[in-house]
Model the fold of this input.
Amino acid sequence: MPKQRTHSGTKDRFRVTKTGKVIHGRQNRNHLLEKKSSVRKRRLQRPGVLTGGDAAQVKRLLGLR
Done:
């Protein structure tokens, strides 16, 4: 049986903390930034945390389950 490969796109977009939380970058921060307020752009800098089935799916794609 062949080895399972980690999903390259998932590897670039998510990371898993030591406690097992899945961290992701937020959307809406790539272009058209002039019209967005400074507060909004600053809030979008902070990472988000995936929960539930989304986190489980990402961990499976990363080969952690």
About this structure: The domain at 8-61 is CATH 4.10.410.60 (Factor Xa Inhibitor). DSSP finds three helices and three strands in the chain.
